[in-house]
Amino acid sequence: MISTHLLARSRYEQAAIAVFPGSLDASRAVAAEIASLIRQRQAEKRGVVLGLATGSTPVSLYAELVRLHREEGLSFANVTTFNLDEYYPLPPDHVQSYRSFMRRHLFDHVDLDPARTHLPSGTVAKGEVDTHCAAYEAAIRAAGGIDFQILGIGRTGHIGFNEPGSPRHSLTRLVTLDPLTRRDAAGDFGGIDATPRHALTMGVRSILDARRVVLMAWGQHKAEIVRTAIEGEVNAHVSASFLQEHPAALFVLDVAAAGALTRNRTPWLIGSLEEQGLAWDERMTRRAILWLSQLRQKPILKLTDDDYNEAGLQDLLRIHGSAYETNLVGFYQMQHTITGWPGGRNPQKSKPGDPPVRPLRASSAEVFPKRVLLLSPHPDDDVISMGGTLCRLVDQGHEVHIAYEVSGAGAVSDEAVWRLLAFVRDSGLADSAQTARLQSLAAGLSEGAPLAETADLLRWKGLMRRHEAISAARVCGVPEKQLHFLDLPLYSAAPRSRSYGPTDVRIMGGVLAQLQPHLIYAAGDLDDPHGTHRLCLHVLRDALAEASTAQAPWLAASELWLYRGAWADWPLDEIDLAVPLSPQEVLRRRRAIFRHETQKDQALFLGEDRREFWQRTEDRSRRLAQAYNALGLAEYEAIEAFKRYAPEDLLKSAAF
Ligand code: F6R
Does domain 368-412+453-652 have CATH number 3.40.50.2300? Predict the structure, then answer.
């Protein structure tokens, strides 16, 4: 069993939780519990019944089970499996069927008897669905019931595909997928139109009947729904909340997915910080003051003793003496995050008496100009997330390089390729043989049916994005010779099956060694529904770890800043650097984002928010400026925000 010291509950939590620094450690712990159950049953000459899930969450768990099989002799000969669900209708050999997923990630790599692996069938005739579902339930019972059920959680709070409204007593049945669930799966199916509308899923009751249930969740995009499931009421709107009623259910979380729990977000509401092993350090103090300012809707400097007392923050008054003193601590911390010189000032242009460029380390503030490496997971994350800061760094004389980590080909529509082919065909640039070939290719693309993802088509799509990135970088003043297209191989799998390997790390290590950057900007955006940003950060972490082991001299002089992408900004209390933008800079950033024309074609990766990226970016950075202003700080047009990570901290923290 996962060790109990990880399970201490707060009074807000209605279910047992275990929080791990990162998803890999967490997956290893869950795999260890499963392995010990399998071995114990083998010793007793009994079988084990596992309930299995698919999706991005269990990929690392299955990888660890496969490793245990290969390297530590774990046999699955006594194991029977039942999967939670299958899309309907969908043939089992479809690359996105859950049967194919299970084969890819587990079944084909261990000694499981295929006859003992069960999934609902995506091909059963409509009229036979009910009989099929009843037979599935009967098969689970006949196998002795599920011993260990693995679950992920959807952003609708679903377990299996028990979407909002699924009752406690529901059994295996045909369901209609929630629009949010379909959008999250759209990347796998190459578009929302090709994404199934229905699925067969085990019911809430079928899941709760399991003897042990472990729900895993990784990443910040799951944090809110995880909190609702654990701290909210038990009801059918969030089917994961029913786990609160299961005597042996456990939520296994990484730090990011646990981030919205009261114990993490506002721990002073739970009780004394010391008793929770926490302290009123700078960060916690700032978090409480900002929370209070937002709660009371008052600028920081107007908070009174009564405000602190009534909100249970007497500790802060005791430590600092009065509201006045406490307010100043919070106010100056926020004030010192702001700088218009993200890379430090040009010493030749500095005047005596200029205030220090605060968020930068004193040692690095002296280096000018700096070599800057901006790591952009997709070809447009650079300008979407920090286009204003990018322009400033260039304008202020630094040598800025941008490395694009994946090709982004998956987010280009066939239609966009057709436009280019048709242009070349009609332009007279091609000779007659080439024109005939273009004619037939363009005809294939214009018929509307999605083309098979041929290597050529993917390469063209990648090239289109590459040229958009070059064009956008030009708006920001970064020459093509300072752009690096890494094409990390991690991108070659379908979005929710991606993992990274040594080649990705080697490529990243290569660019770091070549540039030896003083400043690295990377996406610390854990809200990306497809996890590519998170994987890219893992790759960076491992490459930095290798550089550190090799004692690369540049590493000690290097600073790492994490930006957030299109999905969410840093919470105010985590911001270390805030770069204000003028109205002109906001417009220039918009022009750069506009260069990513293929991204206007389909809102595939936009998630719930249907606005285009430039709108989301402007809205997000304006809101951040307003939030600073509401705290009583200066009023800016827009702000881009960053969190500092000393490279050695990123190495220590498995949180990513
Ligand atoms: C998968 C399943 C779903 C997923 C959930 C989370 O068999 O039933 O409940 O566990 O949608 O998906 P990911 O892990 O891709 O975020």
Answer: no
